[in-house]
Amino acid sequence: MSEFGDPILRAALASVRRLEATDDEVARVIKRAREARFTRRTGTLIAAVLAALVLLAGSAYAVPATRHVIDDVAGTFTGWAAGNDDGAPGRPLAADDDAPSWVRSEGGRLIAKTDGVPLYVTRAKSNEGTVLSFSLGGESAPISISGSNTIEGWRKTFRDHAVVVLGGLPPDEGSKRFPLFGVTARSVERVELRYASGPPLVADGINGGFVLMADATRPLREIVVYSADGHELDRADASTFSADTTRGS
Amino acid sequence: MSQLDPEQAARRALNVALRTALPILGSRDAAADVAQDVATDVLRSLRRLRDPDAFDAWVYRITVRHTMRAVRKRKARLVEVPLELAVEADDVALVGVDRDLVIAARGALGQALATLPARQRVALVLRYVHDLSDREIAAALGCRRGTANALLSRGRASLRQIPALEEIAAQMEGTYA
C-alpha cells in the first residue's frame, strides 16, 4: 500500500461524526442523573421502593421533641452544608474507606459504621441550593441506598428532633439482622434501640449518625437518644422498621 | 462550552460518547449504553468542573474510560463494526475521493478496526472522528504524547496490512494520481 491514511479514514468515518443523541436520550440521562442520588443498587426494585417508603414513614413517625432537646439534627448539618468544616459530623474519608465513588468525589464524610456497614453524608451545590445526601453501604457492600434533599428540605425533617431515623433495609432471606440508620443532634452520645420486649441494642460514641444492626426476629418499638451525661434527649418511633414491615408483609 | 447548562452538557457528552463508542463497539445500542453512563457521570460532577473550557477534554477522558470498560466486557466476542451509514455528498467532497471508494473503505474499515487493540482503536477514532491532536488524544487516554502518536502510527500501520484497504488505497492512488 503506497499511500494510506487521513483521507480515506476521514471519509470512512465521516458519517459517525453526524451521529446525534436523540431528545429522548438527553431527557433520559437528565432524569437518570437526578435519580442517581436515590438508588438501591442491589436487591429488587420492590425492596428499593419499600425502603424509600419506610424512609418517608420514618420521618412522618418521628415523635415531636418533648424532652431535653438542646440542639437538633438540623444543627448537626447546616453549618457543614454552608461550607463550615468546624464541628462537621463524623470524619473525612480515609483512603481505605469503602465509599462509593460519588461519595468520595463529593468529599463525603463517614458519620457511622457498624459491622462494616457505613453511613456517609455528602454536600453538593445545585441550582436549588446545597444538597445533602446520605448513603448507606460501601462501594463493594451488598447493600446501598441513598437519599438526597436540599438542606432546606432536610431542615423540615430535622428541625426540633435530636434523632431522625432515615431508614431500614429489609433483611436478606435467612438473615437475622438488618441495618437501621439515622442521624442525630450533636449532643447525642448514645443511641438505644428498644424492642417490643427484651433488652435494647445500644450504640455509644455517636457523631452525627448511627447504623444499628437490628434483630430481625423481634418487633422494634423506638429509638431513644441520650446526651453524654445520660439525659434522655429525644425518641423516635421505630416500629414501622420491624423486619416484617420492611419485608412488606 | 462557555456555559455549563445541564441539558447542553448532557447533549454534548452523549454526542461525544456515541461518536466514540460506536466505531469501537460496533453497536448503536452498546454505544448508547456507554453514552448514558458518560453523560450521567458528567451531569453528576458538572458543578465540580471549575474551568468550563476544560469541559471537552474532561468529557473525552470520561468517554475513553467508559468505552475501554465496555470493550473489556465485550472482549470475549468478535465485534463487527457496522459503518454502513449513508454516504453523504459532503463525505466525498470533504476528502475529494470517489464515492464508491468511500463506500468500499467504510465496509473494509469496519472489519479492520475490530482487529486492532482497543487503545489503537480509541486513538484512531479520536483523531479521525473528533479531529483531536496528539496532545489531546494523550490527555484523553491518560498517556504521554509520544505514546498517543505511537498508537496512531501502529493503528494506521495495522490497517495498511488489511488487503481490502490496501486495494482501495491503490485504486485511490490510481484514480487520483
Overview of this structure, please?
The complex is a heterodimer of chains A (249) and B (177). Chain A has 249 residues and is α+β, with helices and mostly antiparallel strands. Chain A has helices at residues 6-17, 23-35, 45-61, 73-81, 101-105, 151-158, 243-246; strands at 91-92, 109-114, 117-126, 129-136, 145-150, 163-168, 177-184, 190-195, 201-204, 209-215, 220-226, 232-237. In chain A, a hairpin with an 8-residue loop joins strand 6 and strand 7. The termini of chain A are far apart. Residues 37-68 of chain A have low confidence and may be disordered. By secondary structure, chain B is mainly α. Chain B is 73% helix and 0% strand. In chain B, helix 1 (6-25) runs parallel beside helix 3 and helix 2 (28-45) packs across helix 3. Chain B starts with 5 loop residues before the first helix and ends with a helix. Chain A binds chain B through residues 1-21, 25-26, 28-30, 32-33, 36, 102, 105-106, 124-126, and chain B through 6-7, 10-11, 13-15, 18-19, 22-23, 32, 35-36, 39-40, 43-45, 47-48, 83, 85-88, 90-92, 94-97, 101-102, 105-106, 109, 124-125, 128-129, 156, 159-160, 165-166, 168-170, 172-173.
Write the layout of secondary structure elements.
The complex is a heterodimer of chains A (249) and B (177).
Chain A: H1 6-17, H2 23-35, H3 45-61, H4 73-81, E1 91-92, H5 101-105, E2 109-114, E3 117-126, E4 129-136, E5 145-150, H6 151-158, E6 163-168, E7 177-184, E8 190-195, E9 201-204, E10 209-215, E11 220-226, E12 232-237, H7 243-246
Antiparallel strand pairs in A: 1-2, 2-3, 3-4, 4-5, 6-7, 7-10, 8-9, 8-11, 11-12
Chain B: H1 6-25, H2 28-45, H3 55-74, H4 89-95, H5 99-113, H6 118-128, H7 134-141, H8 145-160, H9 163-176
Q: What is the 3D shape of chain A?
A: elongated
Structural class of chain B: mainly alpha
Beta strands of chain A, count: 12
Rg from Cα of chain A = 22 Å
Spatially, the strands of the biggest sheet of chain A line up as 1-2-3-4-5
Mean pLDDT of chain A: 78
Q: Which spans of chain B have pLDDT < 50 for at least 5 consecutive residues?
A: 76-95
The description of the largest β-sheet of chain B is:
none
**Total number of β-strand segments of chain B?**
0
Secondary-structure-derived class of chain A: alpha+beta
What's the total helix number of chain A?
7
